[in-house]
Amino acid sequence: MTSHVHVHLLPKLFEPESLQGGVAVVIDVLRASTTIIHALAAQAPRVIPCGEIEIARSVAQELPPGTALLGGERHGERITGFDLDNSPLKYVPEVMSGKTLVFTTTNGTRALERCRRSARVVVGAFVNRRAIVETLVADGRPVHLICAGTDGYITAEDVLFAGSIADAVRTRRADQSNPDDETQLALSLWQTASEDPAKIRQCLRDSRGGLNLLELGFDHDIDRSATCDMFDLVPEYDLATNVITAH
């Protein structure tokens, strides 16, 4: 029996056509996924992801004056001229309410672009873990967990979260099939942390992405990104309009 839950350790390790008919979950725990969730929870009506900085600037300029904010990072730091960096703690209602977020990051927004052949694309992180599981179980289609990685390298925090979702969905669906190797690696990593918040936080701190953030002084972002089930919302990416909204 073939499993219907698949972990992809990096966007470049799968062909986009392999996602056809399935639900893709884009995972960039540190920090794009976590920040997108925070922005929508802070009453931003939509997020427009952009792969490149100049495209983001152009998109923002085309929107009515005063209605958009530019957010994102390159190599962990705020882009010159942008309103916000990629820290989820900056995305609060007094800043985001009613504002469209035009967003570009080194890894996460590019991972979204890789998922255009899937039937549905959602955004997941620990802060909306339960909501993601409920959405995937209710949907019923094959699940593809897309780890964004960091600068083209596999990162433990994304794999850990993918393992947590794979474990929960397989359990809820009573899936007894043998997982592929990538999925088994993610499941094994999750088993080492289980539901222990301290172990989850430590895994994030020890990862490639976490060490980069610690060096830049964003340790509070790591703590926030390691927090489970803060929000009961699922960002969904509309493939036709290139817009992410809350569901």
Give me the side-by-side strand order of the main sheet. Answer: 1-8-2-7-9-10
* Helix/sheet category: alpha/beta
CATH homologous superfamily grouping: ComB-like
Q: Low-confidence runs (pLDDT<50, min 5 residues)?
A: none
What general outline do the C-alpha atoms trace? globular
- Average the pLDDT over all residues and give the rounded result: 95
CATH architecture: Alpha-Beta Complex
Number of strands: 10
Indicate the proportion of strand residues.
15-25%
Number of helices: 10
What order do the SSEs take from the amino end to the carboxyl end, as H and E?
Answer: EEHEHEEHEHEHEHHHHHEE
Radius of gyration: 17 Å
**Helix coverage percent:** 25-40%
**Termini, distance in Å?**
32 Å
Structure notes:
51% of the residues are buried. The model has no long low-confidence stretch (mean pLDDT 95). This protein starts with a strand and ends with a strand. The protein has a single domain (5-238), classed as putative 2-phosphosulfolactate phosphatase (Alpha-Beta Complex). Helix 8 packs across helix 9. It is globular and about 55 Å long. By secondary structure, the chain is α/β, with parallel strands linked by helices. It is built from ten helices and ten strands. Strands 1-8-2-7-9-10 form a six-stranded mixed β-sheet, sandwiched between helices. A four-stranded mixed β-sheet has the order 3-6-4-5, sandwiched between helices.
